Amino acid sequence: MAIKENVEVFAVKQALSYLDKDPEKNLPKLLDWFDRFDRKDTLKTQREMIRSVVMDPDNNWHKLVMSLWEDIDPGVRNRFFENFIINGCLLGYQRQKEYKEKYNCNIPWAILLDPTSACNLKCTGCWAAEYGNHMNLTYEEMDDIVNQGVELGTYVYLFTGGEPLVRKKDIIRLCEEHPDCVFSTFTNGTLIDEAFAKEMLRVKNFVPAISIEGFEDATDSRRGNGTYQKIIRAMNILKENRLPFGISCCYTSANAEVIGSEEYFDQMINMGAKFAWFFTYMPVGKGAVKELMADAAQREMMYHKIREFRQTKPIFTVDFWNDGEYVGGCIAGGRCYCHINANGDIEPCAFIHYSDSNIREKSLLEAYRSPLFMGYHDNQPWNENMLRPCPVLDNPGSLTRIVEESHAKSTDYQNLESAKEFSDKCVDTAEKWAPVANRLWEESHGGCAACGRCGKAENERTFHRCP
């Protein structure tokens, strides 16, 4: 690490220590200091947002920030702040930017990786349920992925699967070996127990996101009888040990109204969740249950509900489809993240099971410069309307084209599905969502997606670009 980076790290650590003494009183002062420190305005938007809420003790975001001192173990909280703010955002972003400019390719802020294809549940509509214990990344392979990623500026790693906690020991070992990184996992939560909570307290840099489908009936109907109570037990264990956690919610045609309800949000907050990731169901794989796809009315309902609760509830929420306008559209293909499956295939997205690179044959940088990833790099955003960000669900045909041009192969472990077969399942849903998304965009941006002025559409898929 350069001398300059060492100085910056020391300065931020001192600032966090200062904040710990009296967070409510010192946070405004710390933001003033941060303004001077962040000379390149790397986090200008985030700083302005935080400043707008910390002065109002009744604001939901103020309550969320203060709860991190009330509810979370100090060592865990400080390690998270150091790794997320210093490494993941400041140092990492600068390093990513250098490599992006040098190689003219995407460098991700986060990497999702599957330690295993195995899972202890068999959830309806989940592609992993069909895979079984066929594939696993070795510890050495996962360690090498993290080493390569850090070199390029990626400090955030999220485990997917399968059920990642089938590999508890290796995950904890990675946390130990890379104390400067943030590790998280999408987990069904059923394998979290007191012993694992103690390990989380010890390593201090692991934060789970527990998958939950709504209340007991909805969760158990998709994940199996008794699953909901096991999840609640896991949440109680984490809360009692003062460990941060969030929830991961897949909204479908069967549960969208429940997941979007105030009652559900309030219960998750009361359970101790600090963040919530929202996904819409994707018909991945030949065995996908297409009927579970949320319709346009349900997706619009989630659009409005999440924005409403974001202004009123003390929980950080992200809707990975409907929040495209805040992140410039699709974040896959290494633009913000990529996915590595349990066979080592490097994929643009956790929902896009096509690849032209494998970690056993190429470095991460080589994969980011591969034809498939460059197809993402050169074509994002897929639509000028950022409420239609996805190359499959919102713009079917876009993925098909770059997969065929790059000669990428299906990475499905059992039943190979072409990109066209996958995309064709989304055509009807995309056509029904398009007019809704266009209306919402015009209402919030006052005109066409390109400039916000004229509102003239060139065709059914994209807005035109104004002179």
Automatic annotation (TrEMBL):
The species this protein belongs to is Marvinbryantia formatexigens DSM 14469
Source species, domain of life: Bacteria
InterPro entries the record matches: Aldolase_TIM (IPR013785), rSAM (IPR007197), rSAM_sf (IPR058240)
Q: What is the protein name for this chain?
A: Radical SAM domain protein
Describe the location of the Radical SAM core domain by residue ranges: 105-310
Q: Which UniProt keywords apply?
A: Iron, Iron-sulfur, Metal-binding, S-adenosyl-L-methionine
Q: Name one GO molecular function term.
A: iron-sulfur cluster binding
